[in-house]
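User: I'm writing a short methods note and want a consistent example. For Release factor glutamine methyltransferase, I'll paste the sequence; you return only the structure tokens, no commentary, since I'll be parsing the reply automatically.
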Amino acid sequence: MSGRLKTIGEVLNEAALMLRDYCENKEEDYKNIALMMVSQILDIDKTEVILNKGLPVGQDKYEKIVNAISKYLQDYPLQYCTNKAFFMGLEFYVDENVLIPRFDTEVLVEVAIEIFKDRKNLYFLDIGTGSGCIAVALCKFLDCKVLAVDISERALEVARKNAKLNGVENRISFVRSNLFEDIPKNLRFDAILSNPPYISESERFKLEKQVLKEPHIALFSKENGLWFFKEIASKAKLYLKDGGYIIFEVGFSQAEEVKRILEQNGYENIKSRKDLNNIERCIFAING
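Assistant:
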């Protein structure tokens, strides 16, 4: 390599210029997007970026920043550009093989923590684990082990990486399975949790371009987005301990339908929890 390395300040300014027109067309703050990209790829917080503008940026990191911006300009979500997402205060690796962890899903984990915080040696099943964010967070905040399943082997590779990244790889078992198909029939769980695909195919045209970059297998469901809830609810009782919980994340306006599905399948004490936008986001019930 020849020539002078660019400083953090120079890279930050260059990133902002590359992003400006694209972000202004979307009414996004291009300076903040540039700051987040540089911060995440350099593995330092945003304050350190501002305070250390004179420090040099290695050529490999500089190239990663340029590549990330190029990807962002092609309508990829920021998290895919930096390969980083944050969930329950934890860091996760993400790529196009997994759904990006969202704040909405934290409600599901918070409900589980509230229910099980005083119990030990718990055993959970996470259906459609994706990035592994639910399974990892459960292991970080509860005394438990988790069986995490997904139909996608590539998603499971990402989930394994995240378990190791967060130091819980010895407490999560990963299995490729289409819902319950390859789960041993003798296993019984304290809770079965799932953030399944729940967007109706008819809603596809309403989604932003960045959302459509996420794996469609993790987004869309037939029967108006309710198929996975019906499938999981109908079979989960075979795998739940007496008094065990089923805990779902649900989509906008799906809460009443999912409550009805659970009631029809014999679950009891059906409750809901709202997210920060006052939307019923988590439905949970007891195996009676």
